[in-house]
Design goal:
The chain has helices spanning about 15-25, 45-50, 70-75, 95-105, 125-135, 135-140, 165-170, 180-190, 210-230, 235-260, 265-280, 285-315, 320-330, and strands at about 5-10, 30-40, 60-65, 85, 90, 110-115, 115-120, 160-165, 195, 200-205. By secondary structure, the chain is an alpha/beta fold.
């Protein structure tokens, strides 16, 4: 029996799963099994998985489409490891990941852990710019796994693990947006120890273009209000910053039009700081320039989703809709 069970939900991601499995097959430690749960894909990855049977302890399951959380739960029900590891299908795992995890967990054990994400050298400039926008302290407050953060660390399923005991106590993931934050919150409330392994990154491809990225972060913003309805104390000041950014930018533009263009100076200074930070971390002017629209999309999309959900669900009192209520009941 392997120590770790790596559980990966897949939906129409043949190319991505190939890169992920290739990286897992090159691990310097092999005390893990891989469980692929195909969530009703119209383009299944079974043939790709079969090519790795002689290089990985791998299991493949195909089920009807019910969502990534239900797929993860399906995988956990069939896992044999004592510890469950979760990656997104668009991740690439460094070759020393499990060697490092073995060493880190023997030094400081967590019932539930998370790690950061980074951009691999093979990623496109746009992917690297999006990665910067999602990990920079200037745009997210470090809440996605950085060493400096404005809120308590919360593991995310692109790089997350927890023990079988956690699963047996807390139950599986709920089928909802930001299901990993919900799961981490339930684990913390159950009294388990949660922590960050800052030197255990994965390479996360994220969205490959700005349009898809905008749609993703808009949903993230809306889901933050759903989380507040579930956990009233979970909403922190850092979560409101993108909404304040949207309101502030609109106000500055209006003041620039009707009063003076100098009202845009704070926005210009902030964007210059983002460019300088991206240039410092990526060493690429091209990526640094792309980081500007990526950061605006990250803050603006999240902020607009947050504002819309806040108005509809809190100010107007509509709460969760019927589909969300059904989804809530699928979790423990």
């Amino acid at each position: 029996m392997k120590k770790y069970s790596v559980i990966i939900p897949v939906y129409n991601r043949i190319d991505e799963i190939k890169d992920l499995l290739e990286s897992l097959s090159e691990q310097s430690a092999s005390n893990f099994e891989v469980i692929i749960v195909e969530d009703g894909s119209t383009a299944p990855c079974r043939e790709t998985v079969e090519k790795y049977r002689d290089r990985l302890d791998i299991k493949y399951f195909y089920k009807e489409n019910e969502g990534r959380s239900i797929a993860r739960n399906y995988g956990m029900e069939r896992a044999t490891g004592d510890y469950f590891i979760f990656f997104d299908s668009d991740c690439v795992i460094p070759a020393d990941y499990f060697s490092k995890l073995n060493a880190m967990s023997s030094t400081e054990y967590f019932d539930c852990f998370g790690g950061p994400d980074a951009a691999d050298n093979s990623f496109t400039p746009t992917q690297k710019a999006i990665n910067h926008a999602m990990t920079s302290f200037l745009t997210t407050g470090g809440i996605r796994g950085g060493k400096v953060r404005l809120e308590k660390f919360t593991p995310r399923t692109f790089n997350m693990g927890f023990s079988r005991q956690v699963y047996e106590t807390v139950g599986g993931f709920r089928e909802m947006f930001s299901e990993d934050i919900d799961m981490s919150t339930r684990i913390r409330l159950a009294g388990f120890k949660i922590g960050l392994y800052p030197d255990l990154p994965v390479y996360h491809k994220r969205r490959v273009d700005f349009k898809k990225f905008l749609r993703q972060v808009y949903v993230f913003g809306m889901s933050r209000i759903t989380l507040k309805l579930l956990y009233p104390d979970s909403l922190k000041a850092v979560h409101c910053l993108p909404a304040l950014f949207v309101i502030g930018v609109v106000a500055m533009i209006l003041m620039a039009i009707f009063v003076s263009p100098w009202w845009l100076a704070p926005l210009a200074i902030y964007l210059l700081a983002i460019f300088a930070d991206a240039l410092r971390t990526t060493r690429s002017p091209g990526i640094a320039f792309r980081a500007l629209p990526a950061s605006i999309i990250q803050l603006g999309g999240y902020g607009c989703g947050f504002i819309k959900a806040y108005i509809l669900k809190i100010l107007l009192g509509k709460g969760r809709d019927e589909r969300e209520e059904i989804a809530m009941r699928k979790g423990k």
